[in-house]
Structure formats: C-alpha cells, structure tokens
Design a protein that fits this description.
By secondary structure, the protein is an alpha/beta fold. Helices cover about 40% and strands about 10% of the residues. The chain has a six-stranded mixed β-sheet with strand order 1-2-3-4-5-6, sandwiched between helices.
C-alpha cells in the first residue's frame, strides 16, 4: 500500500493492520451508543449493534467499481505477506477499542454499553474490498466462531471457486446482487473482469 492511499484511509477513520486488513466504526455502532438507534441486524438477528466489529481482511482489491460505492476505488495492490487470522482479529479489535475511546466521556453513552463495545461479539466482514480473496478466510471464520462471535460475510459473488472452497462458513452470507440482468450489471457495477456476471450466476447456483 502506498503512503498516499494509507493516509487517505486513515483520514477517513479507517485503521489498518498489516496494510491489507482494516477496521472502521460502523454508523450504526455509533448511533447505538449515542442515540439508542440500531441496525437491521439487531432487529432481525438479535445482535447488539454497539458490539459489532466492522472490518475487512482484504482492502487491497475488489472486482467491481460500483457506481453507488462510497469507498476509495481503483487502488488495488498485491499483498505479499498476509496476516495470520488470530493476530489479525486481535489487532483489529484493539484498533477498534482505540477508535471508541472518546465515547467513554460522551454523556449520551452509558458506561455499561461502552464497556460492552470494547468486547465485540460479532464481526461484519464487509467494510471494503473483497473479503473472499483473503487466503485464510476459513481459518479466520473458525477463530471468530471459537470465540463465540457471530459472523456476517459480504461478497460480490465474483469468486465462486473461493467461496465453494471454504471449509468453514459464516453464520450469515450476503451476496451483492445489484442488477437484474447483465446489461444493467455492467453499467451499475462496472466490473474489472469480463465474466463478472457469469461468475455471480455461478455463485447464486
């Protein structure tokens, strides 16, 4: 990762580990802490929004340039030294703790919720990039599940072989289907690969 890209991500409140992994506070985590408003995952699945770790193990690449994406695009780079799952999870949790330090003194935030937020019990593997390209994703999911953490994995669906090869599955899998047909898919998702639609269809099969 070049220095300009790193500084841009840090300015946008990302925190990075080993260059390819990142964490950023979810909007709904902050809303839950300060105003008691929660995300759909809490309503649907009973998780606690203020205890969610929003992260990515692979910020280094994505197969799409979606028109609706708010993330930094076209900054793909090769990772030569992938972090081990346990170390990555430990470090991302610690980085998130640093990000929520200021909430401790916010009069709107209960001390109990702040203490709980320091110990996330679910992981949203969705922040940026394409998580499925992290080569140790199965082991990362196993580590999360060993710690009794709920896991949510979001993917573009353009890596069906890697998804099929997982020997540990997330508790919830989200495949982004942003278009009803290939023509609109190409206009909306602007894939970097020529067979993105076909790969997505294989994933959905």
């Amino acid at each position: 990762m070049d220095e300009e890209y790193r500084n841009l991500l840090i300015k946008q409140q990302y925190r990075l580990y080993n260059d390819h992994a990142a964490v950023k506070l979810c909007h709904w985590m902050k809303e839950s802490l300060t105003h008691g408003r929660v995300c759909y995952k809490q309503d649907f699945y009973g998780i606690s929004s203020h205890r969610c770790l929003q992260m990515t193990p692979a910020i280094n690449e994505c197969s799409h340039r979606c028109q609706f994406c708010w993330r930094v695009q076209d900054r793909d780079f090769e990772v030569k030294d992938w972090a081990e799952p346990k170390d990555m999870l430990d470090n991302l949790i610690e980085l998130q703790r640093q990000l929520i330090t200021g909430f401790k003194g916010d009069p709107r935030v209960s001390r109990e919720m702040w203490e709980e937020a320091n110990h996330p019990n679910q992981v949203a593997i969705s922040l940026a990039g394409e998580p499925i390209t992290y080569p140790y994703l199965s082991d990362f999911l196993k580590e999360c599940h060993r710690r009794k953490m709920m896991t949510f994995l979001v993917t573009t669906g353009t890596y069906p072989e890697q998804l099929e090869a997982l020997d540990e599955l997330p508790r919830q899998l989200y495949v982004t289907v942003a278009a009803p047909n290939e023509e609109i898919y190409k206009r909306t998702c602007v894939p970097k690969i020529s067979d993105g639609w076909q790969r997505l269809m294989r994933t959905l099969e």
